[in-house]
Amino acid sequence: MKKLIFIVLLISAFQxxxxxxxxxxxxxxxxxxxxxxSGDMVTLALENEVxxxxxxxxxxxxxxxxxxxxxxxxxxxxxxxxxxxVFVSPFRNNSKNDFRIGAGFSMMNIFETYGEQExxxxxxxxxxxxQFDRRNSFGYNIIIEDTYTFSNMFLIGLKxxxxxxxxxxxxxxxxxxxxxxx
Length: 182
Known about the structure:
This protein is mainly beta. It has one helix spanning about 1-20, and strands at about 25-35, 40-55, 60-70, 75-90, 95-120, 125-150, 155-165, 170-180. It has one domain (about 25-180): Porin, CATH 2.40.160.20.
């Protein structure tokens, strides 16, 4: 009788493991727009992200982003950033729809160019000298994201984020994301 109970428990354990078809990793690519520097520069933003689903409630991600703009206060502005985030799914990730809220750390390298006019003695502009500004900023992320998985492998989602940084920088935006589950 003890052997029969042991075999039934062993078979049910395998059956429970077989029902857990959730994949742990996914890779996502995002494209969107952001407002860099308190809305001074409207950028085209790109992002690559790798996610690890810890369980149905928690996930972690690492991402690399790039943004570029030539519309705004400066003649040109671009950034490269790295992010490390942790997400919580308050309604539980049910493998089809995952609404999650995240927070994390970010580092951004910003490069801006602008023209500075020099004036001759009469007060008229003489020539425009290009000026360059490069700086690193550290900050944190606040993210709201909703992702839908279809065909058990592909996903599509929408991400809204804000990133306050040191040096009075801020980056806020919206991004459409697509990805593959592993």
